[in-house]
Write a structure and sequence with these properties.
Layout: E1 2-6, H1 11-22, E2 26-31, E3 44-48, H2 54-61, E4 66-69, H3 75-88, E5 92-98, H4 110-122, H5 124-138, E6 143-149, E7 151-153, E8 162-164, E9 174-176, H6 177-187, E10 199-201
Parallel strand pairs: 1-2, 1-4, 2-3, 4-5, 5-6, 7-9
Antiparallel strand pairs: 8-10
Helix pairs in contact: 1-6, 2-3, 3-5, 4-5
Length: about 200
């Protein structure tokens, strides 16, 4: 498959690009600075651009089979990516989100409620952006999945990934970036969570 990854030069983005290549996908990595992506592969194409560059975003998405978007704290970037996908007829969108984004299937949970309240107070800007980005994805009309996580950690992939909704006693606070990347990549072809917002953790 031809997969476009936005946010490819970040710590999780690197892992995601490498995992996609390891699974023999063709990858388009959208980055602001190409020197920060330290992966060389004949199946990798790098597109340099910012999140307000509609031309570069459309160039990246053209001919893609799926898009993985890891820039949810920049809602205007999400809006532009969604618009480019609509123009280029790309249907599958897998987007990173957080526990700050609610879902109707969630139940009250004091642990997550306290974390979200802290984020809302300490970082109101990113809190508002991630919620606006999620609204844009849900209203996009695309084949979307929002992958919600509370906290990312380092360490190798464990292969032990819990999925569910907050408040049901299944999902915990954190997941490694390697496991998060593996789950995101799997959603490109897995339709289990189509038009849903699963929460995940280790």
């Amino acid at each position: 498959m031809n997969i476009v990854i936005f946010g490819a030069s970040g710590r999780m983005g690197h892992l995601l690009v490498q995992q996609a290549l390891d699974h023999d996908h063709e990858v388009v990595a959208y980055v602001r600075d190409a020197t920060k992506l330290r992966i060389i592969d004949t199946r990798l194409r790098v597109v340099v651009g910012t999140l307000d560059d509609d031309t570069a975003i459309e160039q990246a998405t053209r001919s893609a089979d799926a898009v993985i978007e890891g820039v949810g704290a920049v809602s205007d970037g999400t809006r532009r990516i969604v618009a480019a996908m609509q123009r280029t007829n790309v249907r599958r969108l897998v987007a990173v989100s957080t526990c700050s984004v609610p879902d109707p299937a969630d139940l009250p949970d004091l642990k997550f409620k306290a974390l979200v309240a802290f984020v809302k107070t300490a970082a109101p800007g990113p809190y508002g952006e991630i919620r606006r980005a999620a609204e844009l994805v849900r209203a996009s009309g695309l084949d979307w999945t929002l992958v919600r996580v509370a906290r990312l950690g380092n360490g190798p992939a464990t292969g032990r990934i819990k999925t569910g909704h907050y408040g049901h006693g299944i999902v915990d606070l954190s997941i490694t970036r390697a496991d998060m990347a593996a789950f995101l990549l799997a959603q490109v072809t897995d339709r289990t969570y189509l038009n849903q917002a699963p929460a995940i953790s280790n």
